Amino acid sequence: MATGAQVHLPYTGTWDLDSVSGDVYRIQVAWPMHWMDRSGHSDVPVLYIVDGNALFLTAAEAAWRRSATPRFQGGGLVVAIGYPLQDKVFSPRRNKDLTPPKLSATSRPYGGAGDFLDFIEGTVKPFVAKEVLAGSTLGREALFGHSFGGLFSLYALFNRPSLFDCFIAASPSIWWDDRLILEYEQRFREGKWATQHAGKDRPALMIAFGTWEQDVPRQAGETEEEYQNRWNRAQERGMVDNAKALYGRLHGYDLLSGLAVKEYPGEDHGTVMACALSRFLTTFFEEWPISVGPPLGVSQ
């Protein structure tokens, strides 16, 4: 009789890091398959991913598959930031970590994005540079998030635009808390950073969404009432409209070195996650830099 064994994933490492408040986060890292070790490499690009438990394997496999293509440029480091979970891929802690605080700084069970960003900047990034890439040099860095994670990427861009070279927002929950993130966007466009950095030292932003996130099809076995309720909720959240509107507004300002929006026909909120991650990981590792895309409705 055949016997089973626990799977060991090569070219990866896992560490638990503590935040200043004592919260424990699980950091999962994948590096290129052709690396004999993690030292001796120059200008290594790094992609940081929130909701790491749900997205680490997807990102690692997408990065490794690129090594078989003729356009492969050497790959980069995948750093997934998650939680010490068992038997689940999402933690309730993400609701606080990934949502922006009220500008009035009121206390509530959400709105911890500032503290989480502090942890990434003050703990995760130095750990990656000094420990994970010991003996190698750090290159460009990007932040990827989906859903609440996409909202978090936008929050990071609007508040600390110099922290990453690229911010990636897949299906960003712009609708959350009466579109609170748009207040941060306005401050970003009109604030001191915009005046000092217009035309130079600018990050890039890539946005993605699936058409079925708003134009939802009826599911098998779904009653008319169930479908109508789901349709109404999708219209209230306006995933597609909000993403396009954000792209359109930012397109008119000289604040970003690159700006891209990618629409995935026939993909919903759950399925577009892998599409966007694979596409934008490839863009960041192999097709960099990007430029500002055309206005919506204008072909390149």
From TrEMBL:
Which protein family is named in the record? Belongs to the esterase D family.
Q: Which keywords accompany this UniProt record?
A: Hydrolase
Report any Pfam family annotated for this entry: Esterase
- UniProt key word Hydrolase: yes
State what protein this is by name.
Answer: Related to siderophore esterase IroE-like
Kindly indicate whether the keyword Hydrolase belongs to this entry: yes
List the molecular function annotations (GO) for this entry. hydrolase activity, acting on ester bonds
Question: Quick one: signal sequence residues?
Answer: none
